[in-house]
Amino acid sequence: MTARIIDGNALSAKLRGELAAKAAELTAKGTQPCLAVILVGGDSASAVYVRNKVAGCEKAGIKSLKFEYPQDAAPADVLGKIAELNADPSVHGILVQLPLPKHFDEKAVLEAISVEKDVDGFHAENVGRLSQGQEAFIPCTPNGVMEMLKSIETPLRGAEAVVIGRSNIVGKPMAMLLTAAGATVTVCHSGTRDLNFHTRRADILVAAIGKPKFVTGDMVRPGAVVIDVGINRLPDGKLCGDVDFDSAKDVAGAITPVPGGVGPMTITMLLANTVESASRAARKA
Ligand code: NAD
Q1: pLDDT score at 42
Q2: To test ligand 1's pocket by mutation, which of 145, 209, 239 has the most ligand atoms within 8 angstroms of CB?
Q3: pLDDT confidence of residue 285
Q4: Is 97 contained in some domain?
Q5: H or E element that contains 12
Q6: What is the pLDDT of residue 274?
Q7: Which one, of 259, 269, 271, lies nearest residue 5 by Cα?
Q8: Which of 22, 53, 117, 172 does the annotation list as catalytic?
């Protein structure tokens, strides 16, 4: 059996086309969606992510503002910029690229972003709202995964879903979204005793570990939907996921590739949250 490939580039292109139409409509009515991105330090992976986010905005007709700070920037300067952007009605989304340098209190920075402009969905209030099923900005990566599952009509109600990883930005919100959709969710992590026991029961297996090719074909239930969130750089410079694609594709029913899977969907959902924030602002105005 060879798995169906869930093409994140194709799905992104379709969704971004729809978002561009919405952005144009809002712009015509006087509210051009605008995303402000803050980058602190010279981490090369972060710089690439920011570049891709800015380029994604441009293509969709979303205005983007980029603010760069050196590695030794004073946290007060960044917090001051966030306060300024919070107060600016022409800005609808504020994103601080993580990770921040060690002398920053990451939590304090994320909490400084206005809940209404928190398009990454990392503010504690948005996390709480999501957990209670209230309207919230949903973190982009797990939201993109849900769109991918929807695109292949994966049955979620009653499905056994296993998420490997419990980070605040991927694993935990992923588990919340799958639970809300009616799946029975198991969250595995570095302390899980018998990982294979869990993964082999999964109808839906989401890998968000940060270890190249960690999930091998023998860990996958035949026919399962395998979502690979991982982005790892190999010594030869190539990207690979947390799933060993070659062995897993022969067992899974559907699988996401890396690159070209969850990665582009993450940016697409960021654009979607920015457009949504702009349309909420337009409605209020
Ligand atoms: P993280 O380091 O914060 O969390 C990793 C999780 O994996 C932890 O909860 C840990 O308990 C678990 N883990 C580690 N070793 C394990 C083991 N042996 N068995 C079971 N669980 C184990 O990472 P993160 O921020 O959640 O990111 C995970 C991966 O997803 C990384 O490769 C990251 O680059 C990638 N990522 C991709 C996107 C995207 O847009 N596609 C977005 C965010 C993160």
Answers
A1: 86
A2: 209
A3: 87
A4: yes
A5: helix 8-28
A6: 98
A7: 259
A8: 53
pLDDT score for 62: 98
For residue 7, tell me if it sits in a domain.
no
| 69 and 152 together in one domain | no
Q: State which residues of the chain have pLDDT below 70.
A: 1
Calculate the CA 189 to chain-centre distance: 19
- Residue 280, CB-side half-sphere exposure with 13 Å CA sphere: 17
Integer Cα distance of 118 and 122 in angstroms: 7
Same domain, 41 and 91: yes
β-strands 232-233, 204-207 pairing: unpaired
Q: Is 71 in the active site?
A: no
The pLDDT assigned to 216 comes to: 98
Atom of ligand 1 nearest to the CA of 164: 21
In a domain, 70, yes or no: yes
- Domain check: are 63 and 173 in the same one? no
State which H helix or E strand residue 5 sits in.
strand 4-5
Specify whether 237 is located in the same domain as 161.
Answer: yes
Q: Which domain holds residue 98?
A: 30-114
Q: Encoding tokens for residue 38?
A: 């803050």
Q: Answer for the pair 228, 256: CB distance below 8 angstroms, yes or no.
A: yes
Counting the structural domains of the chain, the total is 2
Question: Left if phi > 0, otherwise alpha if psi is -120 to 50, otherwise beta: which for 218?
Answer: alpha
Q: What is the CATH number of the domain that holds 75?
A: 3.40.50.10860
Q: How far apart are CA 236 and CA 269, in angstroms?
A: 30
For residues 87 and 104, is the Cβ–Cβ distance under 8 A? no
pLDDT (0 to 100) of residue 266: 97
**Which residue CA neighbors atom 42 of ligand 1 most closely?**
141
Residue 269 lies in a domain: no
